[in-house]
Amino acid sequence: IEIDDKHKLMKPGQRIIDLGAAPGGWSQVAAERMGAHEGRGRVIAIDLLEMDPVEGVEFRQMDFHDPDAPRLLREWLGGAADGVLSDMAANATGHRKTDQLRIIGLVELAADFASEILAPGGFFLAKVLQGGAEGELLVRLKREFARVRHVKPKASRADSAELYLLATGFRGRAPAV
After folding, report:
1. Contact 127, 88 (CB under 8 A)
2. What residues pair up with 145 in beta bridges, in sequence order?
3. Looking at residue 133, what is its pLDDT?
4. Which residue among the candidates 127, 142, 152, 154 is catalytic per the annotation?
5. What pLDDT does 147 receive?
6. Residue whose C-alpha is closest to residue 7's, from 117, 172, 168
7. What is the mean pLDDT of each run of 10 residues along the chain (177 residues)?
8. pLDDT at 132
9. Whole-angstrom Cα distance, residue 150 to residue 137?
10. CATH class for domain 2-170?
11. Which pLDDT score is estimated for 120?
């Protein structure tokens, strides 16, 4: 909520995809902010796990990494998405560097997905852990988006390694290097 308050990402009428959505907190916030429960926007929540219904949110139990996922989501949305949210985290091992690398791996997959489905001007917001392993991802995102930055909500504990990667102003998929 705090990130959206500051950066004004979600607006009525938008189409948002929430990856790794269960239990549905981000989906609920997106639906409320966009007026999805009043038909003024669409939120599609995707997860491998089941999720309890959330008003204004369409849930699809599927793997977003499936090769058909971008096509299916474009069909369900009726076009490209305005934003992709990812609060995914791999099961923690207790080894900080391993956990950080696993989360970056998920964020890279989510970023690949986002670059296939976002409309021009769209945004990508994903949870990451501090640790420096996302350098290549940041380079790529800076080619695809007008602005890329890390944000840490005040609500997050100061000693937590958790922060968010925010990319706005999608320009299109960068060619492979």
Report:
1. yes
2. 170
3. 60
4. 127
5. 97
6. 168
7. 89 94 92 85 94 94 94 94 90 76 88 96 90 78 95 75 90 72
8. 62
9. 12
10. alpha beta
11. 97
pLDDT (0 to 100) of residue 129: 75
Domains of the chain, by residue range, sit at: 2-170
Assign 3-class secondary structure to the chain.
CHHHHHHCCCCCCCEEEEECCCCCHHHHHHHHHHCHHHCCCEEEEEECCCCCCCCCEEEEECCCCCCCHHHHHHHHHCCCEEEEEECCCCCCCCCHHHHHHHHHHHHHHHHHHHHHHEEEEEEEEEEEECCCCCHHHHHHHHHHEEEEEEECCCCCCCCCCEEEEEEEEECCCCCCC
Which pTM was predicted? Answer: 0.91
Per the annotation, the verdict on 8 as an active-site residue is no
Amino acid, single-letter form, for residue 172: G
